[in-house]
Write a structure and sequence with these properties.
6-stranded mixed β-sheet, two-stranded antiparallel sheet, 10 strands
């Protein structure tokens, strides 16, 4: 069932809530970015990074599924894009593929960060993620 957030129609309530969350977290976002092989991400997002070895921001291509556990994404195409997403012509599309489920606790991605990197989730990047998630739910119709 579709849902409306900020005048935009989304395929699902969950996608609309994530869009509202991205705005509240001050992440830039774009719906339905280009496909990557057999994967059609739901969002591209960009968020700031002040680490001296990063380029001021990180980008993710995100799949949103009504999942209650990160392991539900194990076989999803988004999980095949750790540490970078390249297009069909070798162009750089994002720092990584990401899985976003039913809450900030059901999120996961792997990107390079600083001199290293690793697995991250929404709580790693957004201090008040649960409060913003609850508020985002009130903004969707």
């Amino acid at each position: 069932m579709s849902a409306i957030y900020n005048g935009l129609e989304f395929r699902t309530q969950l996608e609309a809530q994530w869009a509202a969350f991205f705005d509240l977290a001050k992440w830039k976002w774009w719906p339905n970015p280009t496909s990557v092989g057999n994967w059609r991400p739901d969002f591209k997002v960009a968020f700031d990074c002040e680490h001296s070895e990063c380029n001021d921001q990180h980008t993710l291509l995100i799949s949103v599924l009504p999942a209650d556990a990160v392991k539900d994404f194990d076989d999803h195409p988004c999980s095949a894009h750790n540490y970078g997403v390249q297009g069909e012509h070798g162009e750089w599309l994002a720092d990584g593929g990401a899985a976003f489920g039913n809450s900030p606790s059901v999120t996961r991605w792997e990107i390079s960060h600083g001199a290293g990197g690793g697995t991250e989730d929404v709580h790693f990047r957004v201090d008040d993620a649960d409060a913003l998630w609850a508020r985002a739910a009130t903004l969707v119709k």
